Amino acid sequence: MTSARILVAIPAWNEEGSISQVVDQVSELVPHADVLVVDDGSTDATARLAHDAGAQVASLPFNVGVGGAMRTAFLFAERNDYHALVQVDADGQHDPTDLVRLISGLDEADVVVGTRFHPDSMYFVGGPRKWAMVLLSKALSRMAKTPITDSTSGFRSAGPRAISLFAQQYPAEYLGDTVGSLAIAIRNDLVIRETPVTMYYRAIGRPSKNALWSALYLGRASLALFVTLLQRRNPGKKDAS
After folding, report:
1. Pairwise CA distance, residues 227 & 234, whole Å
2. CA atoms within 13 A on the CB side of 8
3. What's the pLDDT score for residue 11?
4. Which of 69, 90, 160, 220 has the fewest Cβ atoms within 10 angstroms?
5. Is residue 158 part of a domain?
6. Is 130 part of any domain?
7. Helices (H), the chain
8. DSSP state of 34
9. pLDDT of residue 172
10. Which 8-state DSSP code applies to residue 118?
11. Is 232 inside a domain boundary?
């Protein structure tokens, strides 16, 4: 992927406090990549500050969520012939020094997920959210026949086949950009791998959903994925996809 056309996509909703720094860091660490900020209906100065920092900006007329913003990014990547797309959060939670690892991993995979759960990680998740994340990871790992330890990580990269698929089928519902997109990738026989990354807790702004909502959704998604897993293992039924 050293000579490939690379797009770093940053979905952003009211992130004026961090967007300039994120764009600056990405541009410094991967100067050969283009940066696209998808302004997801922000009501603050996110779009202007991203543009001033040197990013291309696609402004959506209203907030559609991370999934909708990332589908916009994948459409942009497909129409402009990019070979790789890397998703980075606008709030500074993702460490841009891991971008090279995510990009190089595409030499052997269609999707590379940055996992925060590895021996050197200090990231902690507890309570019902952790239990649901473990269930999701186990279900997706069995479906993909490869370990997926961090199914809700939004720090990930996509190669040409994934860009083409996600430009048309990327899910827009809450957490569709993470769990849902992995399920779609698996059902379309894309190769998924993980690589260790560093993630920080949000320092500026607020998350789009609270912890209880996230835990409930993760639980519902876990059940849906287990049903899908059982259907795939039933030899008497054909895969509806």
Report:
1. 11
2. 28
3. 97
4. 220
5. yes
6. no
7. 19-29, 46-52, 65-79, 99-104, 127-144, 160-169, 181-187, 211-233
8. E
9. 83
10. S
11. no
CB within 8 A of 24, min separation 6: which ones?
53, 54
Could you give the angle at the alpha carbon of 38 between the alpha carbons of 33 and 44, nearest 5°? 125
Contacts for 57 with CB less than 8 Å, ≥ 6 apart: 36, 37, 38, 39, 47, 50, 51
State the Cα–Cα distance between residues 182 and 137, nearest whole angstrom. Answer: 10
Amino acid residing at 223? L
Total domains in the fold of the chain: 1
pLDDT number for residue 238: 47
Name the DSSP class of 194: E
Output the pTM of the full model. Answer: 0.83
Q: Which CATH number does the domain housing residue 31 bear?
A: 3.90.550.10
DSSP-derived pairing of the beta strands 111-115 and 156-158: antiparallel
How far is the first Cα of the chain from the last one, in angstroms, to the nearest whole number?
Answer: 31
Quick one: which of 153, 16, 194 has its CA closest to 90? 16
Check if the beta carbon of residue 192 is closer than 8 Å to that of residue 148.
Answer: yes
Is 77 part of any domain? yes
Whether 99 contacts 86, CB under 8 Å: yes
**DSSP secondary structure string, 58-111?**
EEESS--HHHHHHHHHHHHHHHTT-SEEEE--TTS-B-GGGHHHHHHGGGS-SE
Residue 223, pLDDT above cutoff 50: yes
